[in-house]
Amino acid sequence: MTPSKTLDGNSHDSGPLFFRDRDWHPAAYTPGYKTSMTRAPHRALVALSSTLSEQTGPAFGHDMIGERDNNLIVNFTGQPAIGERIIMHGRVLDENGRGIPDVLVEIWQANAGGRYRHKKDGYLAPLDPNFGGCGRTISGPDGSYEFLTVRPGAYPWPNHVNNWRPMHIHVSVFGTGFGQRLITQMYFEGDPLIAKCPIVNTIGQQKAIEALVAPLDMNRAIPMDCLAYRFDIVLRGRRQSFFENRKEGM
User: Fold this and answer.
1) 85 is catalytic
2) What is the pTM of this model?
3) Per the domain annotation, does 11 fall within a domain?
4) Catalytic one among 33, 170, 187, 229?
5) Average pLDDT score over residue span 10-26
6) Which residue among the candidates 168, 187, 229, 236 is catalytic per the annotation?
7) What average pLDDT score do residues 51-55 get?
8) Res. 9: pLDDT tops 60
9) In the predicted model, is pLDDT for residue 6 greater than 60?
10) Residue 20: its pLDDT value, please?
11) Where does the record place the Intradiol ring-cleavage dioxygenases domain (predicted)?
12) Mean predicted lDDT score pLDDT of the chain
């Protein structure tokens, strides 16, 4: 039996060791994703342990969460954003499927037209004056979280001649300190651009890609209001979500 420490800071008897599948993550050098050609390391990687300050702080003050922080439809100006209203919900889980409470979950995304509120985004789609594109929340006692937002649009990007990013929402989770941060992306079930995306195609295993695709959840949809998509975030183990910045999970 192997004890482990989860995001709640407690040690748990987690059962047999979960051996990591190294093929779950893409190679650093993937020419189809043009940026990797300049970012990929040319020497063997060196594993560095977390420092004490990274493990213990600084911590996020949970009392800083505002009432509308997880409602991206109105949290920018108070007026409703334009686009298809959706609920994004799920749970933050450990490798054994146990919910992890008190995790800071942040999201950011393009608007319904596929444009970010960022000075370097030059896409032709218009900005929505009532959509900021970011939100945050704290996971509940069972690890659950929820956001109300609009479905982001696809957009072109200068990777090769005619590449488009699928509709997606960026997701960040924090542990007990800011040094414990994982970043991933959520895609939408049924989007044909997922299979054509050079970034997605750096992931070698189809099961790893499927873990990033949120299925439609009609049980949580609100009639005459919004659809819902479920996206569980698994921190470690064989079913771990693919994280962009830390392959080993938390």
Assistant:
1) no
2) 0.84
3) no
4) 170
5) 58
6) 168
7) 74
8) no
9) no
10) 59
11) 88-116
12) 86
What stretch of H or E contains 3? strand 3-5
**In this predicted structure, what is the pLDDT of residue 204?**
82
Cα–Cα distance, 183 to 222 (Å, whole number): 29
Question: 154 and 197 in contact (C-beta within 8 Å)?
Answer: no
Phi, psi of 155 (to 5 degrees): -150, 155
Q: Name the token pair of 197.
A: 């995306």
Q: Is 165 a catalytic residue?
A: yes
Per annotation, catalytic residue among 155, 187, 229, 236:
155
Residue 203 clears pLDDT 80, i.e. is over it: yes
CATH code of the domain in which 188 resides? 2.60.130.10
For position 42, what pLDDT does the model report? 85
- Provide the residue range defining the domain that includes 123: 57-233
Element (H, E) at 86: strand 85-93
- Total domain count, the chain: 1
Sign of CA dihedral 9, 11, 16, 17: positive
- At position 184, the amino acid (one-letter code) is T
Task: Say if 244 falls within a structural domain.
Answer: no
Residue spans of beta strands (DSSP E) within 122-212:
134-138, 144-150, 155-157, 163-165, 168-174, 181-188
Residue 5 lies in a domain: no
Q: Is 168 a catalytic residue?
A: yes
d(CA 47, CA 50): 10
> Could you say which of 116, 145, 187, 229 is catalytic?
116
Distance (Å, whole) CA 58 – CA 109 = 26
Q: Which residue has the tokens 């938390």?
A: 250
- Joined together, the tokens standing for residue 53 give 């300050």
Q: Are 172 and 246 in contact (CB under 8 A)?
A: no
Residue pointed to by tokens 């992890």? 100
Torsion, Cα of 25, 28, 31, 33 (10° steps): 70
Residue 192 in any domain: the answer is yes
